Prior knowledge:
This protein is α+β, with helices and mostly antiparallel strands. Among the domains are: 176 residues, Dipeptide-binding Protein, domain 1, CATH 3.90.76.10; 229 residues, Dipeptide-binding Protein, Domain 3 (Dipeptide-binding Protein, domain 3, Roll), CATH 3.10.105. Helix content is 29%, strand content 17%. The chain contains 19 helices and 21 strands. The two termini are 44 Å apart.
Amino acid sequence: xxxxxxxxxxxxxxxxxxxxxxxxxxxxxxxxxxxxxxxxxxxxxxxxxxxxxxxxxxxxxxxxxxxxxxxxxxxxxxxxxxxxxxxxxxxxxxxxxxxxxxxxxxxxxxxxxxxxxxxxxxxxxxxxxxxxxxxxxxxxxxxxxxxxxxxxxxxxxxxxxxxxxxxxxxxxxxxxxxxxxxxxxxxxxxxxxxxxxxxxxxxxxxxxxxxxxxxxxxxxxxxxxxxxxxxxxxxxxxxxxxxxxxxxxxxxxxxxxxxxxxxxxxxxxxxxxxxxxxxxxxxxxxxxxxxxxxxxxxxxxxxxxxxxxxxxxxxxxxxxxxxxxxxxxxxxxxxxxxxxxxxxxxxxxxxxxxxxxxxxxxxxxxxxxxxxxxxxxxxxxxxxxxxxxxxxxxxxxxxxxxxxxxxxxxxxxxxxxxxxxxxxxxxxxxxxxxxxxxxxxxxxxxxxxxxxxxxxxxxxxxxxxxxxxxxxxxxxxxxxxxxxxxxxxxxxxxxxxxxxxxxxxxxxxxxxxxxxxxxxxxxxxxxxxxxxxxxxxxxxxxxxxxxxxxxxxxxxxxxxxxxxxxxxxxxxxxxxxxxxxxxxxxxxxxxxxxxxxxxxxxxxx
Length: 605
């Protein structure tokens, strides 16, 4: 018998290498699937009743459950039962909604439950909606919920607002009741044709929380999210890094979707993902990176799997002529470009003595500022042509948006701006080159901003535009959460920011001018009786030409009084590494973490 010792030696060496890599180790574990990306703005916290910013709500949507949610791939947006046992039983007048909650759904484990498994019930939703009405919560969602006119809830809030009183959660009201352990019923004063979209399908605002958790953590509830969703908070370094892990108590749920027949990419995603148990990834790591260059470099260096919103500053480098650069194509990187239902805008505080008010001279000042502002330059330079000019408040890809509508909102006419300022007495009275108020006091605009490179570029457009018509502007810098807090307190004069739809209905953006939502949805604190009357009229109407006509009237009122300068609708580009599987941008939902996968075999070692 003869043996090939050379061949045997090579086999042994190969075996040693494989063993050293763990290929044949009995106790070797699959590589952990971690979704890593960055928020460009810091979170404010994780309590659905207290948050309103898109970043905190993204986290909340993945930890908490609303009754309904959106099909991830269906276009147009399609609402499906989430923890509800079917679609609601709706009264013919759209005033009664009866919903069954699925049994056997459990909250993530928490000391508040005393070591017991805690099942989700209809009473948890009653409690969670009541929290929004509790004055102590100071919920930014209250103004929205107030519009729902849930029978009995306004009276309960008024009682809680009396000196020395507190909100009585145990008082049963006709409009918000648990009929039994799993049956929830809403009764509302006026018809609400879009009640499901507006109040039942957004877990970022209306996710269920448990009373025991709220009572245990009190004022610290923003730091202790406990929901029934697919992920739970693991570690949190405020404004720096947030880590989420799978919720071990999450129900057995599998990937299902209804992709459009003509959408090749969505069809392929569905083929790859159908039937997988969700959530698929083990962990989600969010870094807070407010500067654009570090965020872009982190993605290029493979530190992040996904770049949410390609910074416009790198558009020419990454997507020359709006196509992915060849060097990125070679790396297997993919992009998705889309027109999200978003609006960027600048608001003027209507209670500020310099810029606010509805007298002719104040309206003229705001309209002159708007005409002096060079929106075209904003689109061309800071936004690198990744936006279109806004004509009104309603954004693309929402019901009610009219792509043919044209208004003065997008006009750039410094000559007309100067004429308006001169006509109403905003002239240089001291000879220092800057315009003054009609009473002789200096005209000084205080524009609030954040310390990011992107905002610095936008600020420069504002500075240049205002200087060209003789208006002096200074910039007050603070972090975004601090600006939001000051804005809600009515302390800012002017601030530029953005907003995105949380439902397919563009009418939700009409909140911008609704008086009762002053310093909340209506950050400008605009007050106009005709606008408020039209708002209340359209909100109870079914979708159709009559509602569209009223919405258009409301848009024109905002253009005429100019409490806001509506700037742009952004064109967004998301950038994905080759190992991120299944990602698609949904028009309104942010609950995508559960629907994506990481192919660890394609990741760099």
